[in-house]
Amino acid sequence: MARIVCSQLLPSIAPPLSSSLLQTKSFQWLKRSETHFSQLVMTRRFSAAKISMSLRAGIVGLPNVGKSTLFNAVVENGKAQAANFPFCTIEPNVGKVAVPDPRLNVLSDLSKSHRAIPASIEFVDIAGLVKGASQGEGLGNKFLSHIREVDSILQVVRCFEDNDIVHVNGKVDPKSDIDIINLELVFSDLDQIEKRMEKLKKGRAKDSQSKVKEEAEKSALERIQQALVDGKPARSVSLTDFEKDAVKHLCLLTMKPVIYVANIAEADVSQPESNFHVKEVMDTASKLQCGVVTISAQVESELSELPLGERMEYLKSLAVNESGLGNLIRATYAVLGLRTYFTSGEKETKAWTILSGMTAPQAAGVIHSDFEKGFIRAETVAYDDFVAAGSFAAAREKGLLRLEGKEYVVQEGDVMLFRFNV
Predict the structure, then answer these.
(1) Which positions make up the binding site for ATP?
(2) Which residue in 116, 212, 229, 270 is a FRET match for 282, CA 20 to 30 A apart?
(3) In the chain, where are the structural domains located?
(4) What range does the record give for the signal peptide (predicted)?
(5) What HEC string does the chain produce?
(6) Binding region
């Protein structure tokens, strides 16, 4: 039923045409604005327990668009099998990736730390989706369940021509590719909402508090359902924190923030904006309020195999100054609404991941639950002040160190030392 109704209202998807396909050789950060990404974060909420582990970004797309090649490049030593045929990835591959942050080494050097530990994100290579996945086509239901387990979606879209590599739909058409994936996510969410609404109609809540939550969930799902039928993702619906909490157990696919990864050719590396397909992805992403990163999965894969000393020369030969992977990782970090604070001492300097808006006790809890339970105060120095002073002791002498209490909201780049008693 959901598929019939939605098919009538969502943009139609062009049928596969002739064959033309992938070549991948290039990369570049295309369009990133902090303001734009802040609109994507949709007030996501995670527990300190989950933040203390790596959050997951799922790499999705149609078969043979370069997902596994990109995954291999991102994790460098990834073992995903990249091959020229659909469904070469059956089980999702997971790799933990460091978030590039030059501040980490600066602090480590100042503190003469024995080691520096960066923040990290887990990337998951999920097998290719096809049209009809929500009805089981191409092992679709299994793959959709893998997407439910991630916190954000990186949708790889092919933006280069190569007749030697098979495209599942026979034509390079980014708009159609995006529509296919998005439509399957919408159908899957609609099916799940319909099943949940049937249960809610029976009203099984046993106490007044449960009834209030059920009503909130029902109200939220009705609005989300209408948005999906209108072709809009669940994340476009304005919900209260209470409503978000009521529906979060459904892990709706279209509630997750999305970045479109335009996979381009080497010839487009220095000027990706000149690629017609990239422009199409940018226009579509703008309408959907999603981020865009341009990258060449194959070039990044080749780059990762070079000795560190040769990488910069390779980049210069392509008329670019940096690899696109760092930007992709940072963009993923930003779209999840994550922030970094540091602890720094002789033993180690470490970057810790928190959600924007977390208080000092919550940030302490990311290190250990005892830190949050017994929190007393946090000795805090802004990153720039710490660098200018050179150490905690010097910052204290210069009056740059602050004693922050339980209500303090941790700021990006804070260097912190927690005092607690359990």
Answers:
(1) 64-69
(2) 229
(3) 2-335, 357-420
(4) none
(5) CHHHHHHHHCCCCCCCCCCCCCCCCCCEEEECCHHHHHHHCCCCCCCHHHHCCCCEEEEECCCCCCHHHHHHHHHCCCCCCCCCCCCCCCCCEEEEEECCCHHHHHHHHHHCCCCEECCEEEEEECCCCCCCHHHCHHHHHHHHHHHHCCCEEEEEEECCCCCCCCCCCCCCCHHHHHHHHHHHHHHHHHHHHHHHHHHHHCCCCCCHHHHHHHHHHHHHHHHHHHHHHCCCCHHHCCCCHHHHHHHHHHCCHHHCCEEEEEECCHHHCCCHHHCHHHHHHHHHHHHCCCEEEEECHHHHHHHHCCCHHHHHHHHHHCCCCCCHHHHHHHHHHHHCCEEEEEEECCCCEEEEEEECCCEHHHHHHHHCHHHHHCEEEEEEECHHHHHHHCCHHHHHHCCCCEEECCCCECCCCCEEEEEECC
(6) 64-69
Give the domain 2-335 fold.
Rossmann fold (3.40.50)
Q: What is the pLDDT along the chain (422 residues), one digit of tens a residue?
A: 444 444 434 433 332 322 222 233 333 333 333 334 434 343 344 555 455 446 789 999 888 888 888 888 887 743 344 444 444 444 568 888 888 889 999 999 999 999 999 988 888 888 765 565 455 554 445 667 888 889 999 999 999 887 777 676 678 889 999 998 898 899 999 999 999 999 988 877 777 888 899 999 999 999 999 999 998 999 999 999 999 999 999 999 999 999 999 999 877 777 888 888 999 999 999 988 899 999 988 888 888 888 878 888 888 888 888 888 888 888 888 888 899 999 999 999 999 999 999 999 999 999 999 999 999 999 999 999 999 999 999 999 999 999 999 999 999 999 999 999 98
